[in-house]
Input
Amino acid sequence: MTSLKVALFLLATSVLATGGSVKSAFYGEISDSQCAMNVHSLSRSHKEMIIKRTLGTDPASCAKACVRRGGEWVLRSGDEIDRLKSQIGIEEFAGQKVKIIGTLDPKTNTIDNASIEVASPAKSAEPRH
Output
């Protein structure tokens, strides 16, 4: 009985220790934190900024302008907004539907992004993960 308890304890400990290190695929649009989190957009999108032509003419130019003004790159999938831990190299995907491989920290809604690529049209319609 004691060895069973030890085995279960070790199994539970190893599951908890690796729980945050499992990489998953996340799908969504590369956006900026200011538009996606309603800092200056009521629709959580670039729609108002594009119509007014205040920060860009399309989602990519709007997101780039917002990041230059202090925003961060995020992955937006419907109402889900996840911050991207690594901000390097994200600009080239601004406004595009992407697939990100990484690890989600659910407490901070931050993806430790290991890779990013443009999503295929069929995949870009899927939920974030």
Observations:
- Helices lie at 2-18, 33-36, 47-52, 59-68, 121-124.
